[in-house]
Amino acid sequence: MSWRTTLYDYVHHRNRMDIEHSVEPMLPFVSDEAYLSAERSRLARRLDSDRERGLLPVKTETRLSIRQTVPYKNGIAADCVLKRIAVGQIGLEAYEEQRVEQERICLAPSPDGEAWTIQRVEPLLGEQRLRLKTAHPGALLEADDEFEHVGLMRAPSVPLLGPGVAPLAGTASRRSYNRGEAVRYADKWWDGNNPAYIAFEVDCTSYISQCLFAGGAPMNYTDRRDAGWWYKGRLGGQELWSFSWAVAESLQFYLRTSRSGLRGQEVVSAGELEPGDVIAYDWDGDGRFQHSTIVTAKDANGMPLVNAHTVSSRRRYWDYRDSHAWTTRTQYRFIHISDAL
Fold first, then answer.
1. Phi–psi pair at 168, nearest 5 degrees
2. How do residues 134-186 score in pLDDT, each as one tens digit?
3. Could you tell me which of 225, 221, 238, 234 has the C-alpha nearest to residue 135?
4. How far apart are CA 132 and CA 238, in angstroms?
5. How many Cβ atoms from other residues are within 10 Å of residue 59's Cβ?
6. Of the residues 87, 139, 147, 280, which has the maximum number of CB atoms within 10 A of its CB?
7. Structural domains of the chain ordered from first start
């Protein structure tokens, strides 16, 4: 058996694992105890969530592609992209969730060389990496070194929007939030990056800002990184944008405190949200938010289904209990975007 065959077996049994809510299918050829333990916890949470929703898993399909391979001890490490489709049913209504995940899967041959085992599975980019850094007082940043040394920047008063963004600048004159357009944008770019904008390594909040802008939200140009909500494109090799454009903590704060243009109202429960609204996630329960999603649909129970980046997701159930970033301390902020802009 080749290492490639073992990879494809892993994908097949991972599909079984998600349908059965059990790691048992993985045990014959996965020896990574940390991975198996994390999966047991995740699957238990997913089972609880599915039961609460009355959702019956119907099928899961995964397409695997290998980006690159590198040596790993006496074996090989494969950087893989997993494009997954999960279909579930609530009553007579079926729901299709899509997700793109990236993993490094490390394999080693057996002593007799006739088989391969998976010794380690490591997410290359996952929600659990969304940990906060402070690059400037009051600015909490979610990406890694790319944001670490960013300070305040003075920017020209005239927006310098990239190709493909400039035609949208006229949306600042709109007087209502177009939820349909925000959702259409979210669905178009859920698994890719609009080349008109910078592609941050961790871009969950930039993606949400783009969706809001596509829905007609006017940018608030303050020329200050720590104020307003704006993106001005590239100038002198640097991208100019406000913290609220690209940082989950800053966006949710801006939406709740803005008094004109783009603004939102915090509501008590997820069920009160509509497509085009925003959810912020505080994984650690310490009052600082690290992730953002946009509501793009609702299920038969009237609960939100969301799109997101970082782990690219479409029509994912809003509570994220199936994420390795989720903890028992996780808190949510439900923000209803004002229809009048």
1. -85, -10
2. 333 233 344 333 333 333 333 333 333 444 454 344 444 557 999 999 999 99
3. 225
4. 22
5. 12
6. 280
7. 3-124 (3.10.450.240), 129-337 (no CATH)
